[in-house]
Write a structure and sequence with these properties.
By secondary structure, the chain is mostly helical. The chain is built from six helices and no strands.
């Protein structure tokens, strides 16, 4: 157990309403538990809510989803890749493991990848100059026949 983890466990022990000292197992659990918000991460419930929202964008418009950070992008991308064909129960089981992995990466200053931005692509079949020329010739024809006056 590292010094920050020990401090984490002591803080939890102070907050505890129990008059007695915790068991060794409980104290070790408190030490190793992460304060996700302090690391800039969502907790399990928040990540699950964001994941459910993300599912609406996941297949075709990932670039339109508003990620809160690079870490959230990493979390949602990995959770989707691991759980897209699994049940809700399996997804809920995967979230704590993924959050722990993300917390360790944040603590070790892992360089998370940038959130990709989609570059809008003009359709290759559309040529503005040709379209303008066609419109102008059509307008000239219609004026010549008296359709537009």
């Amino acid at each position: 157990i590292t010094r920050p983890q020990l401090e984490n466990g002591l803080c939890e022990a102070e907050k505890s309403l129990d008059k007695f000292l915790p068991s060794v197992g409980l104290f070790v659990y408190w030490c190793k538990a992460y304060d996700y918000h302090a690391l800039g991460l969502p907790n399990e419930a928040e990540l699950y809510q964001r994941y459910k929202t993300f599912l609406g964008y996941a297949r075709f418009n990932r670039d339109e989803f508003q990620y809160r950070s690079k870490v959230e992008f990493w979390l949602l991308k990995n959770l989707y890749e691991k759980c897209k064909k699994k049940s809700e129960e399996d997804t809920l089981k995967a979230i704590p493991k993924l959050l722990t992995e993300a917390a360790e990466k944040v603590r070790s200053n892992f360089p998370f990848e940038d959130i990709p931005k989609m570059i809008p692509v003009k359709p290759s079949f559309y040529d503005k100059a040709k379209a303008d020329k066609a419109r102008d010739s059509l307008m000239a024809m219609m004026k010549g026949k008296g359709a537009l006056q």
